[in-house]
Design brief:
single chain, alpha/beta, 7-stranded mixed beta sheet, 5-stranded mixed beta sheet, 12 strands, binds zinc ion
Length: 323
């Protein structure tokens, strides 16, 4: 496996493949990828705002001489993976995502994020606290020009790049990008490394299946959606988390506990090193939704509210303990 220091900037993964890493990999701090072929390149994801995307593109620029970006792949519909698309779009550039992701990549989703961060409540406060270093000015929703369902094989200047739909998992339309001749995979938010996994859409079993798909590939490097490069041990740990949370949530559902009580009573000390512990609130909710299809589904704002509550309580408990 290729090891790389976890520093901001473009990293050479060999075979004309690269990644742009954005420490610390926390909320909104996502990674991108670049695959260069003969006379053209493919970019995987843009960033959460225009300044971060512009900085990433100018760092890749020396690599793109004679091999301009002709294809942009968005791994899924969360803003930190496509809000910078307008800086790449243009004649001769195809933007590719799954059909399910494309349906959510709209002007309305840009507006939703901006309005959530402007709210005068705990959710707005939480979103400003975790994403305040991003500047959402000037974003014009720039959606895919080509969509697919299932699997799509692209020819990037003579190289094969496979797009494999694994969603609904983290979101409704996730895909992973496999570069067979370089034994590389760019996973989008199927993998958070350093932070806790997050299952917005699920079911959680599909996130586990996506981990299994990655574990079955022959690989020299794995580029997660957030965090440092990883190896199969990193994938297995994400899988362990998902498996553990799923089993614990099922037990509590069967005991009749509420989602809130289930979240509060699961002992997560095995995974205490992960940041963004509050994601457990969305993950347990997801398991409950699967077990009881009559439960009204919560929207992203409500899911964020649960995560914010968990984080605010944890912060209050930590400050209590230190007094
Ligand atoms: Zn992300």
């Amino acid at each position: 496996m290729i090891a790389m220091p976890y520093t901001k900037g473009p990293h050479d993964l060999g075979n004309h493949c690269h990644s742009w890493l954005l420490p610390e990999g926390r909320w909104g701090e996502s990674n991108t990828g670049l695959v260069r072929g003969s006379g053209e390149s493919l970019l995987i994801d843009t960033l959460y705002d225009l300044p971060h995307t512009a900085e990433m593109l100018s760092a890749y620029a020396p690599l793109l001489r004679g091999q301009p970006i002709r294809t942009l792949v968005n791994t899924h519909s969360d803003g930190d993976h496509w809000f910078g698309n307008q800086l790449v779009a243009g004649p001769g550039v195809e933007i590719v995502a799954t059909q399910a992701a494309a349906e959510l990549m709209t002007e309305a989703s840009v507006d939703e994020l901006v309005s959530m961060s402007g709210r005068e409540d705990r959710v707005g406060e939480f979103i400003r606290e975790v994403g305040g270093h991003f500047d959402h000015a000037g974003i014009v929703a720039t959606p895919p020009t080509r969509t697919f369902t299932g699997e799509l094989s692209l020819d990037v200047g003579g190289r094969e790049v496979r797009l494999i739909q694994v969603g609904p998992a983290h979101t409704p339309g996730d895909l992973v990008v496999h570069v067979p001749d370089a034994n590389l995979v760019y996973t989008g938010d199927i993998l958070f490394i350093g932070g806790a996994p997050l299952v917005w859409a699920g079911p959680i079993s599909r996130c586990i299946a996506a981990c299994d798909l990655i574990l079955d590939l022959e690989l020299v490097a794995i580029v997660p959606g957030h965090g440092p490069l990883t190896d199969k041990n990193g994938v297995s740990r994400v899988r362990d988390y998902l498996d553990f949370v799923s089993a614990e949530a099922v037990k509590r559902f069967e005991q009749g506990l509420s989602v809130e009580d289930a979240v509060a009573s699961i002992d997560m000390s095995r995974f205490a090193d992960m940041s963004e512990q509050g994601r457990i609130a969305a993950n347990v909710l997801n398991v409950y939704d699967q077990l009881d299809p009559r439960r009204p589904r919560e929207n992203r704002l409500q899911q964020f509210g649960r995560i914010a509550d968990f984080e605010l309580h944890a912060a209050a408990a930590a400050s209590e303990a230190s007094h």
